[in-house]
User: What shape does this take?
Amino acid sequence: MNKNIQHLYDIAAKKQRTIIGLMSGTSLDGLDIALCRCNGAGTSTAVEILRFETVAYHNIFRQEVKSIFSKRTVDLEKLCLLNEWIAVQHAGMINDCLVKWHIKKEEVDAIASHGQTIYHAPKSLHQQTMFGNATLQIGDGDHLAVHTGILTISDFRQKHIAAGGEGAPLALYGDYLLFSKKNEERIMLNIGGIANFTYLPSNLDASKMFSTDCGPGNTIMDAYTQQYSPPALYDEDASIAKRGTANQQLLTTLKLHGFFEQDFPKTTGPELFNLTYLLEAQKRSDTVSLGHEDVMATLNQFTADIIVDALQRTMQQKNFSVYASGGGMHNPLLMQNIKEQLPNASFRNIADLNINPDAKEAILFAVLANETLCGGHTNFSGNIPNVSMGKISFPS
Assistant: This one.
């Protein structure tokens, strides 16, 4: 037997596994690195966070990724080069963290790498009849494995698409395994670049749960801040939006897109919701000359409103507990705008479930890797592909 296959078998046979979960989102603020201890699998999964750190990206990294990110036409050579380069950069960040944490690579069973999303193209967006759903994350798993010396599982979204999904959101698998609770209707709300949530029914029926994108989370607000208030990368503490007033004409026009009328589950990305989308809405609403603070206040309200609309369609007057995570949860005005419209919902921090909210997405990919290694027995159904995800790369 190949020694790598034997090593893989030995990891899968363990009672618990130490897995590094990685997440690099569309905000390009940094790489989330979560060192997790995973016990069991399926509905018996338990996760303990041993270490967590977000390693900030330097400006060169951001600019290189932005040169190809969310663009229909890119330099193909640059795309090929960055697939390897990003993986090497991420490997260096992991190695530095392990040194800092005084942990040897031999103590880590696997790396679970989401990679860097470059383009998300569900059929509902590209609308080309001869093609299906598609997505692309780069940061090659083989390079990660070789440069860290640790078995790596990556490229999770492709199996989801191959099995009939749209490649996103994937949070529902980990959300169900970690956070479902009998007799409590739960919404696991994640406000990243794109806002999405998972509905977890109180009867624990996996066939009733779903995960869906709502629309833009921070993506347009961040892009607007970076363009008009550099060097700021985002509207910290909503300081810009708080000085403005939401414009009703622009707000109404921003909501006039067929995506918001589509049934759940659905996915989207910055390919649709970006500064071009904003500018076109400003032209149609005759608000091109609107002050930057008012634009930011409107974008903040826009994100809040589309999240509220999606949650109301799910809650239907029931009492729900909403657990928030993602960068948007740190935006006080955004959270205020959401809570004010959902007085019957109980808003809680995911930290109440003993999970660092900033680490949640990285942890969920560690859970997906754990399922790939030793799970795969949970019976998901309905619109949820019942598959294990991720490609395995050996370090040698």
Observations:
- The mean pLDDT is 94.
- The CA atoms of residues 32 and 78 lie 24 Å apart.
- The domain at 3-170+358-393 is CATH 3.30.420.40 (Nucleotidyltransferase; domain 5).
- The chain has two domains: 3-170+358-393, 181-353.
